[in-house]
């Protein structure tokens, strides 16, 4: 207030508003959190300022800008953000933003880590293969904290070496595993296990590799010598894998000749019968042609 001591006294009043940019308080604002999958989580962000700041929440890139519990981006507001029955999909950084119209706005990053035991998926539980071929077995797992992954056959762990090659590709909490078996032998057929472990638990899945026999071609006969008497002379017969006799070349030739002769005789008989029928028809139409002078 400004006052002048005159008669009468004069005075003037003014109002001063002091604005303060937002300030996020370290306490009780949440710090980075580690929780078990399935539990309930509440993230908290508290700020001071003048006027009183408003709080909004979003997920940090490369995650979706939409929050798990709302379909609209950047619409979650309030000091507390709650997630019921948190899952591994909720894992990642969250950002609270405090603003009150007085620049600059202030933000804080809170990392939410969700722990869960390993889970394994395999594309096929039964795989067929042939001797001499290469074979690739696949297995994928999800776990956090990071799991220890390996292949087992019987009581032995399979590591990279002669006859085996292993590949592991990591992407976040997901791991893809491959076991490559070069030049399969009969000893390689059987059951293989994909195993994943962390301190929360252990998971495994089995893959059975079965021997697929190479099918013999039906054009390759199995030759078996069997006694066959014909005119006092011993000959042989050829049979295939189904025990069906395959005639030899000599028998095939004679059979073909016989069939040709039979076909020719039948043709002559049919032709002669047809000529007789035509002659009779012609004679019935023109009887005068048959008179004998």
Automatic annotation (TrEMBL):
Entry's Gene Ontology cellular component terms: neuron projection; plasma membrane
Subcellular locations according to the entry: Cell membrane
One Pfam entry name: Ig_3
Gene3D superfamilies, A to Z: Immunoglobulins
Record has Cell membrane as a keyword: yes
Record keywords, A-Z: Cell membrane, Disulfide bond, Glycoprotein, Immunoglobulin domain, Membrane, Repeat, Signal
Record keyword Transferase present: no
Domain of life: Eukaryota
Domain Ig-like stretches: 22-107, 117-210
Cited InterPro entries: Ig-like_dom, Ig-like_dom_sf, Ig-like_fold, Ig_sub, Ig_sub2, Neural/epithelial_adhesion
Xref: PROSITE patterns: IG_LIKE (PS50835)
Identification of the protein by name: Ig-like domain-containing protein
Organism placement in taxonomy: Eukaryota, Metazoa, Ecdysozoa, Arthropoda, Hexapoda
